[in-house]
Structures are given as C-alpha cells and as structure tokens.
Amino acid sequence: MYEQEDLMNDYWDERSVSYSEMTMKQLHTDRKKVWEDVIFPHVKETYKDVLDIGTGPGFFAILMALHSLNVTAVDMNEEMLKFAKKNAINEGVTINFLQVGHDLPFVGEWFDVVISRDVTWTLTEPEEQLKSWMSIVRKGGKLLYFDAEWNYHLRDEEGMKHWENAKKSIQDEGIEFYEKANELDEASRELPMTYKNRPKWDRKFWECQGYECHVYEKLNKQIFNREEQIHYQTHPVFLVEVVKNSY
C-alpha cells in the first residue's frame, strides 16, 4: 500500500497551494455558517477536546478552534500541514498539528470528538483503522466523518459507463478535472473502500460493532455551491455519526 500512499502524497503536494486558498476562503464567506450548521448540531456544549484526522489546510480544525475547542489536527502530508499551521496563525487560533500516517499516535480515550472529511475512502485497512479511531473517543463522545463514493466507477462496467456520461456533461459546463486523475484511479483500485457500498456499509459495520450510528445522506445541496454541485453530482456526500455511549 506504500505506492498508493506515495501517490496520494504527491497529489496533495501538487494541490496544496490551490486547495488551501480555495478552502480557507470559505472561512470568510457564508460557507463558514453552512459548515457550522452541518457540524455543530452534533457537538455537545460539554465537549472540549477534538481531533481532526486528515486536516489538510486546517479548515475543520480552525472552525472547531474558533468555537473555543481544544483541537489536535493530523495529516500525512507535510506541505498541507505547513499551510494548515500558517492558516491557523492567520485566523488567530492555537492548534496542535502533528504529521502522522494512518496509524494514530494515541492510546486511550483522548477526545470528545474525532472528525474527518474525505479521508475514510483512502484507508488501507478500514475496519481496523476505523476501530482505532473510535478507541480514542471518550465515553459520551462521537466520531463524525464526511465522505462520498468517490470511486464507484471503478467497481464495474456499469459504474464506469455512468461516470463517463456524467463526466462529459460536467466538462460541457466548463469544469476541468485533475490531469492525473487516471493515476489516482489506478491507486484507488487497490483501496478496499472502493468496493464498499457506502454509506450502507458504514452503518452495518458500526452496528455490528455495537455502536449507535446515524447516517445523514445527500448533503451536496447544503454544503456545495452551484459549480461544486455540478462537479460532484455523481458523488453524494454523507455524514456518519458514531456515538460511544457512556453506559
């Protein structure tokens, strides 16, 4: 799996500047409130400590810190973390940033909330890694992760045909795709989550682990602007909320 991780790292190295600029602009537009309205109904006032996994340029981490939460944020990509640290300084918040891989350096129940966005699809051992995420959530706390079926088109011929038709209509709108998308596809073929029917798989997985699980689907209209809705029309974003009950 190291080849896939190297490719992902190269991808984010190349996109770190533009992605940071694009993402951080949202903190100073109405998109900030959009994300607050999506996230904070799931965050209790008693919560204090948050871990943001795969923080990228730090958007979620900064958003949580602006709400007076103690935030730790991790990412595997060094360039992204450089921008995240700079963005946190610019926003006047203090965040503990750490560079880590898929294995987290925490033992025990450290956090009231563990949150991530667009990370779970990259997991190389999803069952074990997701359980490790939940193991560091305190009793009464939550795991919150956003994702989508980014690679459904790689499963079978029907999915690929659907994606090619959608891709053409998206390009007709003047929206461009990442030039190395084919290389990412090759890496994604080796990732287990590519072949899961999500978020049905997520709900079943957590219920089998004995946790309370809530799934919120089709969030695109709520979180994306018009251009993004066109771009991601075949990738409905979902939120999985897993609760570690205190009893």
Characteristic key phrases:
247 residues, alpha/beta, Rossmann fold, seven-stranded mixed β-sheet, 7 strands, 43% helix, 18% strand
SSE inventory with pairings:
Layout: H1 2-24, H2 31-39, E1 49-53, H3 59-65, E2 70-75, H4 78-91, E3 96-99, E4 111-117, H5 126-135, E5 137-147, H6 157-172, H7 181-188, H8 200-208, E6 212-216, H9 220-223, H10 226-231, E7 238-243
Parallel strand pairs: 1-2, 1-4, 2-3, 4-5
Antiparallel strand pairs: 5-7, 6-7
Helix pairs in contact: 1-4, 1-7
Structure, explained:
- With 247 residues, the protein is α/β, with parallel strands linked by helices.
- It has one domain (2-243): Rossmann fold (3-Layer(aba) Sandwich), CATH 3.40.50.
- It contains ten helices and seven strands.
- It has helices at residues 2-24, 31-39, 59-65, 78-91, 126-135, 157-172, 181-188, 200-208, 220-223, 226-231, and strands at residues 49-53, 70-75, 96-99, 111-117, 137-147, 212-216, 238-243.
- It has a seven-stranded mixed beta sheet with strand order 3-2-1-4-5-7-6, with helices on both faces.
- It is globular and about 50 Å long.
